[in-house]
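for the recovery benchmark. tokens below, seq after
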């Protein structure tokens, strides 16, 4: 999406604003399916925690995607967006048995990642098919917060607990129809991922009635010029060959599943914010925008990089700016970044704002969350309204009468 289109959208819908390019989402989906075209049965389950807007879910459903969910609310969103229950996998962590049973009652694929719940669920519902999430003890991820396959992770059942796992399955007579792993986001080394896959294949041999093996996701996308990314084409060739060999040895064709989230939507997203103030200090030039980490927390939470462009002056002379927000504490999007010359009123576009950006937004400082727009076939569609003061008050219960009663007793004995 070019800068003139983004600027036009910002003028139509205002800022701050999230904009998603439907064409980019579609092309990323096709790129991944093409990389694994030689797998007879492939299922891509979009990890909707990355971006869960209903219209984005409908778009991915129209492309043929399945859905990866981590909460009962995401399951319900998926059903509302038109996904069939059997196309949804539910992979929670640390939730109650009651929530898992609620998801099972909706007919979605259950994925369990701890022995306690596995035993409880298997004892009560031995006939409901269950996938098991394994922790392969393989480290992946560019930040400790998104590395979930290492030995100290809270996610998954340790490969060292396989004997205990098999004992539970044998005693409960559970129906295990899938094996799953997720090493974490930002896969940098394909060979490390393939090594983890071998652990999953070895684990799968213990179960004779599998329908699928789920390799999670974590495909890295570039966040800046020259940045490295996961070579999904190379991974596709190597893993396809090994997966097809495993299926031949296993004795029946299985479905190869992935759960791409960031890969599908990150590069499709742009966050637009207007510059309120350009402030020169003794050593820094600050560009202060009408937003903050209440709208885009990743730079402050993960130290992530988002390329920033001045769409109001895309050809201007580059200067160094620190882009900061309006939140009442340290709130930095970028430090000493080269950006085309900025003046007050300009609109800045933050790239790679499709994944884990709006979904992590909040009302901190009692600020409104921004609107969202989907750009589809040359037309900008509003897919979430900008919040208002009524939204801030929504669900709050005003107990003013309590304090009126207190006021009447002040000064009395």
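predicted aa per position
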């Amino acid at each position: 999406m070019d800068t003139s289109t983004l600027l036009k959208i910002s003028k139509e819908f205002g800022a701050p604003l999230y904009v998603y390019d439907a064409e980019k989402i579609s092309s990323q989906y096709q790129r991944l399916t093409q990389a694994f075209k030689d797998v007879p049965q492939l299922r891509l389950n979009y990890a909707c925690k990355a971006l869960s807007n209903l219209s984005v879910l409908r778009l991915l459903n129209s492309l043929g995607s399945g859905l990866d969910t981590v909460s009962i609310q995401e399951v319900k969103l998926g059903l509302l967006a038109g996904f069939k229950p059997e196309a949804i996998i539910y992979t929670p962590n640390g939730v109650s048995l009651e929530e898992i049973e609620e998801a099972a009652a909706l007919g979605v694929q259950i994925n369990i990642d701890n022995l306690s719940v596995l035993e409880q669920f298997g004892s009560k519902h031995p006939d409901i098919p269950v996938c098991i999430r394994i922790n392969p003890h393989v480290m992946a991820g560019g930040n400790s917060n998104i590395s979930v396959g290492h030995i100290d992770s809270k996610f998954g059942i340790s490969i060292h607990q396989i004997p205990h796992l098999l004992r539970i399955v044998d005693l409960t007579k559970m129906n295990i129809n899938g094996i799953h792993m997720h090493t974490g986001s930002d896969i940098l080394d394909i060979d490390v991922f393939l090594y983890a896959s071998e652990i999953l294949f070895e684990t799968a041999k213990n179960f004779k009635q599998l329908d699928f093996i789920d390799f999670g996701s974590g495909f890295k996308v570039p966040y800046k010029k020259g940045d490295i990314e996961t070579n999904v084409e190379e991974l596709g060739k190597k893993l396809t060959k090994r997966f097809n060999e495993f299926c031949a040895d296993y004795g029946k064709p299985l479905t190869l599943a992935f759960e791409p989230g960031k890969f599908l939507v990150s590069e499709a997203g742009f966050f637009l914010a207007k510059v309120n103030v350009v402030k020169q200090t003794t050593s820094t030039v600050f560009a202060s925008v009408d937003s903050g980490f209440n709208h885009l927390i990743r730079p402050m939470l993960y130290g992530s990089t988002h390329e920033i462009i001045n769409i109001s002056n895309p050809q201007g002379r580059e200067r160094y700016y620190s882009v900061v927000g309006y939140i009442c504490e340290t709130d930095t999007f970028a430090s000493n970044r080269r950006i085309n010359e900025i003046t007050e009123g300009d609109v800045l576009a933050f790239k790679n704002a499709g994944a884990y950006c709006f979904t992590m937004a909040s009302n901190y400082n009692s600020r409104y969350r921004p609107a969202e727009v989907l750009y589809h076939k040359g037309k900008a569609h509003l897919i979430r309204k900008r919040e208002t003061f009524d939204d801030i008050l929504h669900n709050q219960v005003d107990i003013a009468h309590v304090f009126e009663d207190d006021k009447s007793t002040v000064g009395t004995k």
